[in-house]
Design a protein that fits this description.
- This protein is of the alpha/beta class.
- Helix content is about 40%, strand content about 25%.
- α1 packs across α2.
- The longest helix is centred in the N-terminal third of the chain and has 14 residues.
- The radius of gyration is 18 Å and the shape is globular.
- It starts with a helix and ends in a 5-residue tail after the last strand.
Length: about 280
């Protein structure tokens, strides 16, 4: 009860979303196998239970990454561009597409071929809004790199070896976001989501020219992975300092408050991740 009261004052939008989602679950029977065509925020989406991952059921019930969906609804508007880096099977891309509408666009990046195929299916089902799909990774360099595809967790694929139980290895193309926008000029980028299992800092390094060129910067959603950053030779504080230099402040999505050092240290200690919103200082709400 204390936790509910705390969320009521700190992040009422998230609390309402969680309550309505759980209420809706009572009247919905989940399919247990096969592919089922449904909708995500008005966008046609194929739920592939053949992937055998519990996240598919969470997506089907609408309870997957609720704090991220709340943030998308809060800041992303019709006609804007959404960028999804580490799009996986496209659930967040689909939700964002429902927000930007027929005059908006979604640029999604997913290097793992079998998950990129699910993105292509999303585009086939939805001729509008415009989906620009990219079957390569983003980072701070260009070339080819090995990505480690996790077993039993479709969202845990990473450039960090040994992070999870391995299903396979794929050699994929990698480029910088700065290079991408040089060839694909983007109009009115409202939000960027970066979820690359520890590679977020390198993605941001490859995005600095783009961010510096903007007078109106987008909100950036990032899954902070303090333990993985340590494995790669940097820290969550390196990422936060980099974004502060671009005029951003970082918020914890669960509380909708400035991210505290104690939360970062706790996540590092227990090998947890933190969903964060980097908001331009003039747009802090």
């Amino acid at each position: 009860m204390n936790r509910i009261l705390k969320m009521m004052f700190q992040n009422p939008r998230l609390l309402i979303r969680r309550i309505t989602t759980r209420t809706g679950m009572c009247f919905r029977t989940p399919p247990v196998s096969g592919r089922h065509l449904g909708r995500v925020n008005g966008i046609a989406f194929e739920f592939d239970f053949g992937l055998r991952d519990g996240m598919i059921a969470e997506m089907y019930h609408g309870r997957y990454e609720i704090d991220i969906l709340v943030e998308l609804k809060r800041f992303l508007t019709r006609g804007q561009t959404f960028v999804d880096i580490g799009a996986n099977i496209g659930y967040i891309s689909a939700y964002a597409a429902g927000l930007v509408g027929s005059h908006g666009s979604v640029h999604a990046f997913e290097p793992v071929p079998k998950y990129f195929n699910r993105l292509q299916r999303l585009k086939e089902l939805n001729p509008s809004p415009a989906f620009q799909l990219n079957n390569f990774a983003l980072g701070d360099t260009t070339g080819r790199q090995t990505i480690y595809v996790a077993k039993g967790n479709i969202g845990a694929n990473s450039f960090v070896p040994g992070k999870d139980e391995l299903e396979s290895e794929e050699v994929v193309m990698i480029d910088t976001f700065d290079n991408y926008v040089a060839d694909h000029p983007l109009h009115d980028v409202g939000m960027i989501k970066i979820d690359c299992e520890g590679y977020e800092y390198k993605v941001l390094l490859g995005m600095q020219n783009f961010l510096s060129s903007l007078t109106r910067k987008p909100v950036i959603l990032i899954e902070l992975s303090p333990q993985i950053y340590k494995m790669l030779g940097h820290s969550a504080y390196d990422l936060i300092r980099l974004m502060r230099a671009q005029g951003y402040r970082v918020f914890d999505l669960k509380t909708n408050r400035i991210l505290k050092k104690e939360l970062i240290e706790r996540a590092l200690e227990i090998n947890d991740v933190l969903n964060c919103s980097f908001r331009p200082m003039r747009r802090d709400l």
